[in-house]
Amino acid sequence: MFHYKMCGLPNVWLANGYKVKDTPYGQAVSVEDAESLHQLLATQLIKKKGALTGKEFRFLRTMLQLSQKSLADMVQVSEQSVSLWERRGKAPTASEAVLRMLIADKFEGDCQMAAVIDRINTVDRLVNQRTVARARLHKWSAKEVPAPEVEESVAA
Known about the structure:
By secondary structure, the protein is α+β, with helices and mostly antiparallel strands. It has helices at residues 34-46, 54-63, 68-75, 79-88, 93-108, 112-122; strands at residues 2-3, 13-14, 18-23, 26-31, 129-136, 139-146.
């Protein structure tokens, strides 16, 4: 068995799915389909009873590709609070629940929350952006575009 510390979690052991290679610099380990393994670990963590440790909290946040600032903005706390939770492992229950629900939605759900996360990750704060609405066949659609791409024809 291989103690898989590279994911940042101290208690993960692999029974198989890895290869050990000898190199001139010592042994190297490659893990098969690490992304799927990390998704599995994330879904296992959200089912865990009790509070998450700081390392588990950080692992889930990084699986969502959220910065500490992005997560802090989502749960309306300071970036420093998220940093402390990850170092000390004492996140408020509500914030931990939000993180678990985001993971569940991204890897097990319909990905509505994942789309929101992707938008947050694109840019923490959008500047000079406009919503362009168009009517087509009696239905409206909208698209966010940078301001320079919008042609101004009529001002209301």
